[in-house]
């Protein structure tokens, strides 16, 4: 289970396991994670965790939310990311441990069939990108980013960053990971790409 380590002025104040799918961070008492400082907004940010993936989203806070020195709107969290929220330094720890149901599975059984992203239009039409990593980012940081995650059961796509909303098969893709099927089409600012099982 992932967790966050919350420090202020170099002193660790809280260790919070991300036990729920949606956990809000803010100054007001009704938040799941309360940070009592006047520079923290009442509802500052939220962390959404689905299976092994956690996403941080700024909730239009006054002073912003920063990850590894960059101001973010939405961000796919990775192990040891450093979140700056007003006076607080928050480290994201992804332990990668998830309980197995039933009998333990062999490592080979946990790997989905290989897949690729194929560019369908523009100057890069025909190029193929193998999805060999646990998480592959597509798009431009700060403008529009889609992350494709490889899970035990297959692949899923989520919109993690930027104001422009990408499309999956003509429908807006949100921050919640959506399973990909062979032939599914992504549209990132007019660049069309197809998900293909190789």
TrEMBL record:
<dbReference type="InterPro" id="IPR050923">
    <property type="entry name" value="Cell_Proc_Reg/RNA_Proc"/>
</dbReference>
<dbReference type="InterPro" id="IPR000253">
    <property type="entry name" value="FHA_dom"/>
</dbReference>
<dbReference type="Pfam" id="PF00498">
    <property type="entry name" value="FHA"/>
</dbReference>
<protein>
    <submittedName>
        <fullName>Phosphopeptide-binding protein</fullName>
    </submittedName>
</protein>
<feature type="domain" description="FHA">
    <location>
        <begin position="23"/>
        <end position="72"/>
    </location>
</feature>
<dbReference type="InterPro" id="IPR008984">
    <property type="entry name" value="SMAD_FHA_dom_sf"/>
</dbReference>
């Amino acid at each position: 289970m992932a967790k966050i380590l919350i420090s202020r002025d170099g002193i660790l104040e809280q260790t919070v396991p991300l036990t729920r799918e949606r956990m809000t961070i803010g100054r007001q008492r009704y938040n799941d994670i309360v940070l009592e400082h006047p520079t923290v907004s009442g509802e500052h940010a939220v962390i959404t965790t689905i299976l092994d993936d956690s996403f941080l989203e700024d909730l239009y806070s006054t002073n912003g939310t920063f990850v590894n020195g960059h101001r973010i709107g939405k961000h796919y969290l990775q192990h040891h990311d450093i979140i700056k929220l007003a006076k607080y330094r928050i480290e994201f720890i992804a332990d990668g441990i998830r309980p197995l149901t039933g009998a333990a599975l062999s490592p080979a059984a946990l790997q989905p069939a290989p897949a690729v992203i194929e560019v369908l239009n523009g100057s890069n039409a025909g190029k193929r990108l193998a999805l060999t990593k646990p998480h592959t980012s597509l798009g431009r940081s700060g403008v529009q980013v889609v992350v494709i995650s490889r899970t035990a059961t297959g692949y899923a796509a989520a919109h993690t960053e930027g104001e422009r909303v990408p499309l999956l098969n003509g429908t807006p893709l949100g921050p919640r990971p959506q399973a990909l099927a062979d032939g599914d089409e992504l549209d990132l600012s007019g660049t069309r790409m197809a998900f293909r099982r190789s």
